[in-house]
Amino acid sequence: MRYEVRPLTSQDQAAAWKLGSLAFGYHDRPMPEDWNSDSPGRYTLGAFDDSGRLVAKAVDRAQQQWFGGRAVPTSGVAGVAVAPELRGKGLARLVLTRLLGDARDRGAAISTLFPTVPFPYRRLGWEEAGWLTYLALPTSALSGIRPAPGIALRPATEGDMPAIFELYRDVARAGNALMERSGPLWNRTATEILESFDGMTVAVTTDGEVVGYASWERGPGYDSSGKITAYELIGSTHDATSTLLAMFAGWASVAPTAVLRLSTSDPALYEVATSSIRIESQQPWMIRVVDAAAAIAARGWPSHLKGSVDLDLADVECPWNEGRVRLVLDSGQAALEPGGSGEVRMTSRGLGVWYASAASPAVLRRAGFLSGGDAETDSFLMAATAGPAPTLLDYF
Ligand SMILES: CC(C)(COP(=O)(O)OP(=O)(O)OC[C@H]1O[C@@H](n2cnc3c(N)ncnc32)[C@H](O)[C@@H]1OP(=O)(O)O)[C@@H](O)C(=O)NCCC(=O)NCCS
């Protein structure tokens, strides 16, 4: 059977809803009248059999993620589904391989996704780089945290949103993999954002400067199952972070469990009794380099590191990445130049994990993602993407 892979049209939307809702278990809901798999920044590819039936689909989201202080154009892959009778026959490979090419054509340098199952994505060159993590602890365990005297808390207003966005962006810019929350996929108004939580609280100095915020939801009930969830808790100072955390202690009588969605290396972890923490949930996410030259040029690099290493990249699904290239770093910029000896061999999974600062060359070597080279090249590659550990605070 030959399949046609093409972008969906308005005629295909009902079939896309059916395929997606069945795969992800919301098939009891009717398709909303104005539903469309495509919207600004979302591009859906479908595979059609020779009778014109939609049998597989995948969405490419035009998003950006921060690496080394620069926002990297990214293809966020979502909504991957194959008709139940046709799974295991190469349809996901067909659609995702085309998606990678199309994403590159529109300027995406890397791709990320939240897998329900990692194996098909591994076969196609993605690899796990981090987790979206919800930590749970007894709310009463927060009671030892003291609010800072110079910090007041109040509900956020629409006028606070620019400051809230900047607080988040400062964290994203200083980290790796965090989402840039602007562009066509981030078109909600300040009111819509505020209304999407039970509460958004800001921490304000005596001068009126917003130095922290927490967005939170109060779960149902007030018995032992009661829960308070902080989806985001960001303070630019210790005082802001501790005052926001202390506020959540006030929920202990009616919401005995506090859930915190925190980044991998989060200052809030230096405030709480980490021995009381358990993992409430952990959703892994994966990365893949879509266009190696563009990805290397797009991210930021350590400004004090200068040098080069010769790579030999293996990438069956994105053949434009394959072959010998020289990675050259200077003054916080990097480039991949064609040629070189190909001394260090890297697979596409290895390239993604290294690019994301998710693992050292020694780990990549043991995983079978990197070979060749020596202690010198390992040390250079290690310094180039030494950290911080990649982290995300958004699901997609
Ligand atoms: C996951 C899913 C999209 C995979 O689609 P598919 O068409 O069956 O995948 P393919 O046949 O193209 O497989 C691609 C590769 O992954 C491998 N693979 C696929 N599913 C696998 C699995 N569950 N375990 C291990 N390997 C798997 C295949 O062997 C193949 O490898 P190869 O091409 O190197 O031989 C499909 O099973 C599905 O729709 N599942 C339900 C919805 C879902 O989970 N979607 C994913 C959301 S993130």
From TrEMBL:
Family matches, as InterPro entries: Acetyltransf_17 (IPR041380), Acetyltransferase_Eis (IPR051554), Acyl_CoA_acyltransferase (IPR016181), Eis_dom (IPR025559), GNAT_dom (IPR000182), SCP2_sterol-bd_dom_sf (IPR036527)
User: Known Gene3D superfamilies for this protein?
Assistant: 3.40.630.30, SCP2 sterol-binding domain
Task: Look up the coiled coil feature and give its residue ranges.
Answer: none
Q: Which residues form the N-acetyltransferase domain?
A: 3-149
One protein family per Pfam: Acetyltransf_17
An example molecular function term from Gene Ontology annotations: aminoglycoside N-acetyltransferase activity
Cite a single GO BP annotation. Answer: aminoglycoside antibiotic catabolic process
Q: Which PANTHER family does UniProt cross-reference here?
A: N-ACETYLTRANSFERASE EIS
Q: What is this protein called?
A: N-acetyltransferase domain-containing protein
Source organism lineage? Bacteria, Bacillati, Actinomycetota, Actinomycetes, Micromonosporales
